[in-house]
Amino acid sequence: MQPTPNTPATEPSLLGGAGKPFTVARPRLKGAGPVLALILLCIAGGLLNPDFATFDNLMNVLTRTAFIGIIAVGMTFVVVSGGIDLSVGSMAALIAGVMIVAMNALAAGAQPPGAVSIVLLGIGLALAFGATFGILHGFLIARGRIEAFIVTLGTLGVFRAVLTWLSDGGALTLDFTLSEAYSPVYYQSLLGVPIPVWVFALVAALGALILNRTAYGQHVQAIGSNEQVARYAAIRVDRIKVLTYLLLGVCVAIATILYVPRLGSATPTTGILWELEAIAAVVVGGTSLRGGSGRVMGTVVGAILLSVIGNILNLTSIISVHLNPAVQGLVIIAVAYLQRSRR
Description:
By secondary structure, the chain is mainly alpha-helical. It is built from 15 helices and four strands.
């Protein structure tokens, strides 16, 4: 006898199977986790210090997030593809040093618009170096068949050593005239929002579009899920890997372009632990360290969340600000632990 619509026999079909609504909701809850954590942190920050909830402090947090956030967008592609890059902080430091040396050499007391032209040349040089370093990493990893960890660990030391040599162990300082012409890139605002925040938003939007709406983005995810299967599917794995590290190199260059006018100098300590912060932002945002899945918007939330933690520590002095990297390290370990059963 067929069950009537009012009998319990119809309930599983309406629910899509016993417990299925909960099963469907779980990924959504996981995806919303970083956002909920950020909201709770913001509430806690406002309660601990009223200055936290001001517009000026919000812009300060977002501006400081922009550097790491832009790098983290590129890092998302690398991690989703199953790779890693430990050199981004040292790469940024070297690019900053090369920019300053080259622009100072061209300056010779130039006045605007000459100074503006030199700044534009410096920006172009930074993008060229970032792309070159990214391609170098990609070829060594994809064509050289060397583990990404080893390649980027090696270049981390190389980049930092070259910058130390260029600066003779001290600081490379941008010419004052060039610094005046360059400063609006960091200090200028548009509609009340600092330029770095606008650039961060644009890079994040483009990154999300590329990862989710292009064949390249789908191939990156396929390689991270199973590289051998991706090769069987006729995906040009080596080419995709090179493009992925190229993308990260360009993101590092963009972040450096925004960072240089902030202080107008580069030292052997510039960019220290940026790789830790970028990777932390990626994993906190929900990207699997094993590769195959990730979200650029989650990375953005993760980067902001980590900046909020640092900002709260600065405003409240709950613990020493020098322990901020320790907090980030613990966050990475905790998130990796929570991801251990995901695949």
